[in-house]
Amino acid sequence: MPDAPKTIESLEVEERVFAPPPEFAARATADADLVRRAAEDPLGYWADEAERLDWMKPWQTLLDDSNPPFYKWFVGGELNVSVNCLDRHLDQRGERVALYWEGEPGDRQAITYRDLHERVCRLANGLRSLGVKRGDRVAIYLGMVPELPAAMLACARIGAAHTVIFGGFSPDSLSDRIQDCSCRAVITADEGWRNGKTIALKENVDKALTSCPSVEAVVCVRRTGGEVGWVDGRDHWYHELVAGQPPECEPEAMDAEDLLYVLYTSGTTGKPKGIVHTTGGYLTAVAATHRHVFDIRDDDIFWCAADCGWVTGHSYIVYGPLANGCTGVLYEGAPGFPGPDRWWEIVERYGVTILYTAPTAIRTFMKWGKEHPRLHDLSTLRLLGSVGEPINPEAWIWYQETIGGGRCPIVDTWWQTETGCIMISPLPGVTATKPGSATHALPGVGADIVDELGESVPFGSGGYLVLTEPWPGMLRTLYGDDERFVETYWSRFPGLYLAGDGARRDEDGYYWLMGRIDDVMNVSGHRLSTIEIESALVDHEAVVEAAVVGRSDPTTGQAIAAFVTLQASIEGDDALIAELRQHVATRIGGIARPASIVLTDDLPKTRSGKIMRRLLRDISDDRQMGDVTTLANAEVVSEIAQMAAAARAAGTGE
Ligand code: WTA
Questions:
Q1: Confidence band, pLDDT 50/70/90 cuts, at residue 3
Q2: Which of 147, 208, 530, 546: disulfide with 175, CB 3.0–4.6 Å?
Q3: CA distance linking residue 438 with residue 627, whole number of Å
Q4: How far apart are CA 603 and CA 547, in angstroms?
Q5: With contact defined as beta carbons under 8 Å apart, do 550 and 595 qualify?
Q6: Best mutation site among 415, 474, 608 for ligand 1, i.e. most ligand atoms within 8 A of its Cβ?
Q7: Which pairs from 17-21 meet CB under 8 Å and 24+ separation?
Q8: Which of 310, 416, 434 has most ligand 1 atoms within 8 Å of its beta carbon, as the pocket-test mutant?
Q9: Whose CA is nearest to atom 22 of ligand 1?
Q10: What residues pair up with 529 in beta bridges, in sequence order?
Q11: Does the pLDDT value for residue 494 go beyond 60?
């Protein structure tokens, strides 16, 4: 890990505070009393939440902490995740819609709990007939079709672990993951839809499988009807496989600590990390956080607009909401297809009450303009959520005003693939929010900010974000690599989980996330967070999106290099660049004035929408660029590199 901050200096002050609306607070599922009880007895809180699930056999030990960091939760307990997400709702709410699904071309399905149960059972039986059994791993490589959550739940039903691989990944990434997990089967589709074009899913699987000897069977959903290659004996059509199967399927009784899934995420090395989540603790954690953070009520229509290929989709499209018997929305396609108001049309059509998305999406909608959401009735919305990166106050306010009509609380939720569930977030009926702050650790969660020595820093300063207590949703290890698990998360500060994020707490104890530790710059001995400077840039009316990195500078150690996307209607020139540099200096202080600003129509992003700052650092330092295959828009890179070289040569630094 590169040099990290002694303390992260924070110069920007955000002073707006929004109290929970009184009528919201009066009805909220999580209240101050819950917070108090959890603070007094965190383990008791988790035990109460676990009691809400259906256990086939009760646990004997709530938490086994005898061999840290290999914690075990609900030891001795047995349950089945698909039973908790489906069967137990059938009596009371079998006819209730579990998922409203909307395909990109405009086809729709309203899938009730009873329907979904039947689909899952048929597929589970089908998988068993192909020889998939308890303890196996199954790769799922699909677009956002109803068969995706069904496949996850079918695996859970028969005790096979799934690894969902985002449909945008290449054959190489696919085969790396399938091999690392030694999957026995792959579930895919002929093609997926994205922006009116097709993605060749089955073809990618066929390429990947040339180097995956463990795979015995491929199940293929017919989605677009496109041509596919076929390997007799290995490949099976999904619809044919399930057609002959009984609509009931005996679930496996799983140990609370049995593997539920592996989800790969990139680390600091080239090899992705297989994050391991188990059964009882994970389900307890996602159900509890879904209920409390999103204030779930019986009549809610909950839309988490993430992809099931990421942890957000696992925890808050599939497992949390279905465990709570909630009605969700699943949208297959791109936000701008066929027009820039597609999302708002969906909100209106289904009467969505809670929307959960990422800052990068919000900034895209800002760029497209207010007129598109205004075309639709968004008055059913009552709560908004954000996840995935720090949300800059300007985007927060836009979200609140333009989408939330000024009436919806916003929950800015901090968590990671590793944490499994939301860790730091407002409780919408309890917490007064500050735009850009994830506020406080949730009930049952212990967080802190520490300095280089692992000492807690006082309010008003920054450092490393750590988690101080085990929690039921925590990753148990990295698949097949206990050593890397200990090294990455538990070795820097013994007894503390290192999140890898920088953060500060303000004078009121509010947490402000400041980006990954390796996104922190050191300019003339001052440690500055990239996100604060990005926020200041985006605060300027001409700017839509900004990314900031530290580039090497012989005088100041690092110099601030900014990459900025302007509003579509604005033409950039040198005068505007000078104005933007001054704007940051005015907003934060002279120390934060960018040395160079490159104007670009697009920033390099991963397929999940995160800006690739690592790449921008390479460009800024004129280094050989690292791997660009995970980029969604690799073509912008060489263009930006040329402009960055020109900006460096022009020597705008000082
Ligand atoms: C970042 C996504 C600031 C953070 C659930 C974390 C955030 C990484 C927030 C995990 C937030 C996520 N505010 N930063 N509300 N939420 N992050 O594993 O850097 O895809 O470490 O999980 O995203 O990303 P991951």
A1: very low
A2: 208
A3: 32
A4: 8
A5: no
A6: 415
A7: 17/432, 17/433, 17/434, 18/400, 18/409, 18/410, 18/432, 18/433, 18/434, 18/435, 19/432, 20/409, 20/428, 20/429, 20/430, 20/431, 20/432, 21/407, 21/409
A8: 416
A9: 416
A10: 520
A11: yes
Residue type, 207: K
Is 388's C-beta closer than 6 angstroms to any atom of ligand 1? Answer: yes
Ligand 1 atom, smallest distance to 500 CA: 21
| CATH number assigned to the domain comprising residue 643 | 3.30.300.30
Q: What's the pLDDT at 267?
A: 59
The residue whose CA has the least distance to atom 15 of ligand 1 is 414
Nearest CA to ligand 1 atom 25: 416
pLDDT over threshold 60, residue 335: yes
Q: How far is the CA of 499 from the centre of ligand 1 (A)?
A: 10
Ligand 1, residue 516: give the atom nearest the CA. 19
Q: Does residue 499 sit in the same domain as residue 461?
A: yes
Which range, of 106-110, 180-184, 239-243, 525-529, averages the lowest pLDDT? 525-529
254 and 221 assigned to the same domain:
yes
Q: What is the pLDDT of residues 611-652, one digit of tens each?
A: 888 889 888 888 776 666 667 777 778 888 888 888 777 654
- Assigned domain for 111 exists: yes
The secondary structure element, H or E, covering residue 354 is strand 354-357
- Distance, CA of 481 to CA of 276 (rounded, Å): 10
Q: Which is the closest atom of ligand 1 to the Cα of 412?
A: 15
Kindly give the number of the ligand 1 atom that is closest to the alpha carbon of 386: 15
pLDDT in tens, 102-160: 999 999 999 999 999 999 999 999 999 999 999 999 999 999 999 999 999 999 999 99
Q: Are residues 536 and 499 in the same domain?
A: no
Q: Are 38 and 50 in contact (CB under 8 A)?
A: no
Residue 525 in this model has a pLDDT that exceeds 90: no
Residues 497 and 529 in one domain: no
260's enclosing H/E stretch is strand 259-265
- Nearest-CA residue for ligand 1 atom 6 is 416
Q: Is 526 exposed, middle or buried (0-12, 13-18, 19+ CB in 10 A)?
A: middle
Q: Mean pLDDT, to the nearest integer, of 444-459?
A: 96
User: For the chain, what is the domain count?
Assistant: 2
Classify residue 633 by its DSSP letter.
Answer: -
Ligand 1 binding pocket includes 516 (Cβ within 6 Å): yes
Quick check: bond before 338 cis, omega within 30? yes
The pLDDT of residue 653 is: 39
Mutate to test the pocket of ligand 1, among 265, 513, 518 (most ligand atoms within 8 A of CB): 513
Question: Which atom of ligand 1 is nearest the CA belonging to 424?
Answer: 15
Largest pairwise CA distance in the chain: 73
Residue that finishes a domain, picked among 503, 536, 554: 503
pTM: 0.86
The per-residue pLDDT for 265 is 85
Cα separation, 434 vs 426, whole angstroms? 10
Q: Which residues pair with 254 in a beta bridge?
A: 79
Q: Which atom of ligand 1 is nearest to the CA of 499?
A: 21
Which residue's CA lies nearest to atom 12 of ligand 1?
388
CA distance 366 to 400: 12
Domain C-terminal end among 472, 503, 534: 503
Residues of the domain holding 540: 524-650
Q: Taking 70 as the threshold, does the pLDDT of residue 654 lie above it?
A: no
